[in-house]
Design brief:
Bound molecules: retinal
Radius of gyration of chain A: 18 Å
CATH topology of chain A: Rhopdopsin 7-helix transmembrane proteins
Distance between the termini of chain A: 58 Å
Strand content of chain A: under 5%
Largest interface: A-B, 34 and 21 residues
Structural class of chain A: mainly alpha
Oligomer: homodimer
Number of strands of chain A: 0
CATH superfamily of chain A: Rhodopsin 7-helix transmembrane proteins
Order of helices and strands of chain A: HHHHHHHHH
Amino acid sequence: SLSVAKMAPDDYVGFTFFVGCMAMMAASVFFFLSMNSFDKKWRTSILVSGLITFIAAVHYWYMRDYWVSNMESPTFFRYVDWVLTVPLMCVEFYLILKVAGAKKSLMWRLIFLSVVMLVTGYMGEVLYRDQAWFWGLISGLAYFVIVYDIWFGTAKKLAEAAGGAVLKAHKTLCWFVLVGWAIYPIGYMAGTPGWYEGAFGGLDLDVIYNIGDAINKIGFGLVVYNLAVNSSKE
Amino acid sequence: SLSVAKMAPDDYVGFTFFVGCMAMMAASVFFFLSMNSFDKKWRTSILVSGLITFIAAVHYWYMRDYWVSNMESPTFFRYVDWVLTVPLMCVEFYLILKVAGAKKSLMWRLIFLSVVMLVTGYMGEVLYRDQAWFWGLISGLAYFVIVYDIWFGTAKKLAEAAGGAVLKAHKTLCWFVLVGWAIYPIGYMAGTPGWYEGAFGGLDLDVIYNIGDAINKIGFGLVVYNLAVNSSKE
Ligand SMILES: CC1=C(/C=C/C(C)=C/C=C/C(C)=C/C=O)C(C)(C)CCC1
Ligand SMILES: CC1=C(/C=C/C(C)=C/C=C/C(C)=C/C=O)C(C)(C)CCC1
């Protein structure tokens, strides 16, 4: 029978799932419909911004229903989402640095590292929780190499060669990866057994992930959008 | 009552169904929204790339729910998908060779062969499993003729006449058909009775099909997309 579950009025986790879902949908429409107003060289970047929020919108659609039905964290779906969106964010770094001559090898290296980071993270969080510290360490190393590459490595040098609006956008995206993405390993430490678990008790992870995802995905896309706006003024 | 099934966290078959579904959706949006940035002569090819992934996205949507509900391979839906998408891939060969004067007869011949391949395959896999070897043989012959035609026949000659980016794309697509498509007859042999069945025990066919489909459909489409990018540079 057709039925819509009642929401508890104080279910603030559910509230962030619903707001998050709608925000991702609206952001996707925004990016998709504005891409053609920009010069050809920025269109793919803005389209990819839209794909990232679109993929998230579809997963939040599941996840809010999953939450309402099971009152349980939809970890499985979060990882389905990440394994597609995080590599696409790596593609964004490549796309905006293409003007400075970025090579496909940079893109593939970042994609590979992000997949290693997520697959080992899933192993520790879900499959082999007893060795969570071990898998988390490998995952963290991959994360560290990504951070290093964009802050100080090849990607940084390309951004400096490009200068202007590209350099500015690259710097902002670097902060997203260093600070915005850091909430995920913190969530991992709060949610898996280990010497560290006590330190983060009491945090409601789903709320933090939902707010973090919105900032990391929509915000990230808006940085790229702004770059397209600023570079047409230059 | 509204309910979303819980996923077993180690259901990696289910994981590939979900990731595959979303990847196909995202790829469709990508092809649909980027087609108009290209010269008119490439738009239909890119649109068809999008149709192929879009048809797959809808079937993966069924298939992932089918998997979650029945924990059984959705063979029926795979064939529904193939009978539409494989002929469309044949159309792609024709579309990219049109610049070199490809005739509609090439397109119809490839379409006809692909339909024979799939209908006889379905007969062996589902309807007359006792004669699986016989139907598999006919299906394999049709597959062989397709491979021959694109690697050495009319299609190859047209690609050589076109040269440049078209020839390069044609060659890559030929490899897709020879290597990427070969997983399907291997799956057939693993899944039907016959002298050959033992050779492939232990493989989880759905995982292999899900990964193979993503490569064969999204990858195939991206080759065509790249052709459009490269030919505007030439
Ligand atoms: C380092 C590390 C992790 C990092 C996850 C990250 C960095 C996820 C980023 C997700 C994003 C950006 C989502 C979308 O907005 C895991 C897998 C939790 C496991 C523990 C160690
Ligand atoms: C030769 C052969 C087969 C070939 C199937 C093929 C080649 C399917 C291709 C599907 C694609 C490309 C799907 C989309 O991505 C069958 C029917 C299994 C039956 C056994 C013999």
